[in-house]
Write a structure and sequence with these properties.
Layout lengths: L3 E8 L3 E4 H11 L5 H12 L5 E4 L3 H4 L5 H26 L9 E5 L9 H9 L6 E5 L6 H14 L5 E8 L12 H9 L3 E8 L8 E9 L7 E6 L2 E6 L3 H18 L10 E4 L4 H12 L6 H10 L6 H10 L8 E8 L3 E8 L1
Parallel strand pairs: 4-5, 4-6, 11-12
Antiparallel strand pairs: 1-7, 2-3, 6-7, 8-13, 9-10, 12-13
Helix pairs in contact: 1-2, 2-7, 4-5, 8-9, 10-11
Amino acid sequence: MAVRITSVAKQLPKYTRETKDILPFVELWLNGQEDRFKRKVLKIFENAAVDKRYSIMNPEDVFLNTSFEAKNDIYIKECTELAEKCLLKVLNKATLKPTDIDYIITVSCTGIMIPSLDAYLINSLKMKQDIVRLPVTEMGCAAGVSGVIYAKNFLKANPNKRAVVIAVESPTATFQLEDYSMVNVVSAAIFGDGCASVILSSYEDEVGPEIKDEAMYHFFDATHMMGFKLRNSGLQMVLDQTVPQTIADHFPKIIHPFLEQNNLTIQDINHLVFHPGGKKIVQTVEDLFGALGKNIDDTKDVLRLYGNMSSATVLYVLERFMDRDIPKGNKGIMLSFGPGFSAQRILLEW
C-alpha cells in the first residue's frame, strides 16, 4: 500500500525584515561591547547567506528585555494563529475539509504549551473527535522529516486514511538578550520564524510523490552538539561549531547504505530536498554533492529568503518541488539533522 505526500503549504509570520534592516537593532544590542567584537558580530549577520527573515515579533520586541513568560505567551498566541492559517491553506490546496484528517502531528521546539498545539486546532476547526494526536516537541530541526516519517508509518498500517504534519517555529522567541556568546550571535544571524503543513494519504487514488523508504541515523556521543538549555531567561541555543564537519564525516554512512538497501546509488536521485541548517552546513553538503553533479539550489534559496526556521524549513524546500511538474519516476531524498545528534531521511518517488 502506497503512502503519498499530496499537498504542502507554508504560512509566513506577519513581521518581516531584510538583514540590512536588522543591523541597526543589532548595533544597539551591542552597545557597550568592544569595537572589534561589534565588527565581528555585524559581519556574521552580513555573511550568513540570509537576506530576509520573518518573525512572530517585531524587532523592537525581540531586542527588549522581555521575560521568558512574556515571550512564551507571544509564542502560544501567534504560533497557534499561524498554524491554523497554514492548516487551512494546505487543506484548501488538497480540496479537503478539516474532518477529512485522521491523524494530526504538530511539531515545535521553540516554545512550551500544554495542551499542545493540536488540541487547539482540533477545537477551532472542529476536526474529528476521534482524530489521533501526536505532538513532537524535542527533535529540533530534524522534526519536520521525523513528523512525516511518523505519519507515513501510521498510514502504512491504516489504509484509506489521511494525516497532516504541522511544523511551526519561532527561534526569534529564544533570543537571549544578555548572552553575547558566538552561539547566540550565530543562531540570531541564521534563524527565522515560519510554519509549514504537509498532508499525506494512504488512499489508492490520490496523487503525489510516494514515500518509498525512510530511516533515522543516530550519532553516538553527540548529545552536546545541538539543542536548548532551559534558563530563567528562556531557551538558550546549543550549537557546537563542529556540527558541519561532523555531518561531512558521517555523510557516506548516512546516504549510501540507505540508497543501497533500495538498490539505488546517488546517481539515481534527481532531487535533493535538504534542510538548510546554515551557511556552513549548506556549503558542506554542496561540496559533497557538487562533485556528483547534484545541486541544492532550492535549499540555498530557502535559507536566503527565510532563514533557518528549524523543523519547518525542510517543508519549505519540499513545497518548491511539490509545486513543480516533476516527471513520473523521478526520485528524491529528504534530509534533515537535529539534536541527538541525528539525521532523518526519506526516499521519494514521483
